[in-house]
Design goal:
2 domains, six-stranded mixed β-sheet, Peripla_BP_I, Rossmann fold, carbohydrate binding, single chain, 11 helices, alpha/beta
């Protein structure tokens, strides 16, 4: 049995069975308050607070290419958060969808001796060995969004809630059309082969079942504007009447809304997914079929920066009673409507 060195300053115990799952919203980005906090602390912060300047922390950050509004926002929010701290030096690797290149980026961070690595892997399984290598070298890894296939490859994992997104969307649609036994509910998914899409669809199906509804018409797109427009056009052609539709992703939703406009259809309500700013502005203006969207936080990388800083500086999350940063944070998936959109618009991303 191999023995890894004890991780410096963080006292990281890595028994897989000890994983603690906390569904916390307090230090995430789902409120106006947390959006302001995402800009970071300052050296003028209150003495004794987590934001008080301390020992300089060098953090390596790597994420996939910014070929999607949500993904671009991940890196932007991470940079913005790091810039808010006088005691954080952030090294950002160029975004890439090349697994071998991302592996080499992490190896470079290891060789440079950074204090922590925040990593949103293009492929969680493929990046697991190099993350284990970093952990073995005493560098805590914060795994963002796409999980490694070994829990020992990360000190902290920050996740959205794909199943919860489906539940939130389904519950909202139940509130709108659940009393109509003949309601026609449709779904425009993302890439069907991905577990995240399967989780979202399962949550949606389960929530609809609670009010006696189900998915009458379903198509899948690919998280792109073009794919969304094509899938929505096929859906509208196949379903002459719809009462409610959930589109999994606001980036592909740009194409979905274009197809709806081209078809001249407006007899239904639509719920989006992920929480883009342009979707929220439409919800706020009430200028079309889009009445709500479900958050999948694009500030997970920013959360990773804050947690990396806390770990290296031997601090804990001040809103919990624990003396160590927890192993896992799963972020909430709230529904944004015209009534509460002002709380979320400031932390939204542009599609």
């Amino acid at each position: 049995m191999s023995h890894r060195p004890v991780l410096r300053r963080t006292q990281i115990g890595l028994a897989a069975a000890a994983t603690s799952l906390l569904a916390l919203t307090a230090c995430t980005s789902n409120t106006t308050e947390s959006s302001e906090a995402a800009t970071g602390g300052t050296s003028q912060a209150e003495a004794g607070s987590n934001d008080e300047a301390g020992e300089t922390v060098v953090i390596g950050f790597s994420a996939p290419a910014a070929d999607h509004g949500w993904m671009a926002a991940i890196t932007d929010a991470a940079k913005s958060t790091a810039e808010g701290y006088d005691d954080v030096e952030l090294k950002v690797a160029e975004g890439t969808n090349d697994v071998n290149l991302q592996i080499s980026q992490v190896e470079t961070f290891i060789n440079e001796g950074v204090d922590a690595i925040v990593l949103l892997p293009f492929d969680g399984a493929a990046m697991t060995p190099v993350a284990l290598k970093a952990m073995a070298a005493g560098i805590p890894v914060i795994n963002v969004d796409r999980e490694f296939n070994d829990p020992n490859a990360a000190r902290v994992t920050v996740l959205g809630d794909n199943y919860g997104m489906g539940v939130s969307a389904g519950q909202y649609i139940c509130e709108q059309v659940g009393d109509d036994a003949d309601a026609v509910v449709a779904e425009i998914a993302g890439i069907d082969s991905l577990p995240l899409t399967q989780d979202r669809s399962q949550g949606f199906e389960d929530a609809l079942a609670e009010c006696g509804q189900d998915v009458d018409n379903r198509v899948a797109a690919d998280f792109t504007v073009e794919g969304g427009e094509k899938a929505a056009a096929n859906l509208l052609q196949a379903a002459p009447r719809i009462d409610a539709v959930w589109n999994h992703d606001d980036d592909q939703g740009v194409g979905v809304l274009a197809a709806i406009e081209n078809a001249g259809r407006d007899e239904f309500i639509m719920v989006g997914g992920a929480g883009s700013a342009n979707a929220m502005r439409s919800i706020q203006a009430d200028d079309g079929v889009l009445k709500a969207t479900v958050i999948y936080p694009s500030t997970q990388g920013a959360d990773g920066i804050k947690l990396a800083r806390l770990l290296v500086q031997d601090k804990a999350m001040s809103d919990t009673v624990e003396v160590e940063v927890p192993r896992m944070l799963q972020l909430f998936a709230p529904v944004v409507t015209q009534e509460n959109v002002d709380e979320f618009l400031g932390s939204a991303f542009e599609s």
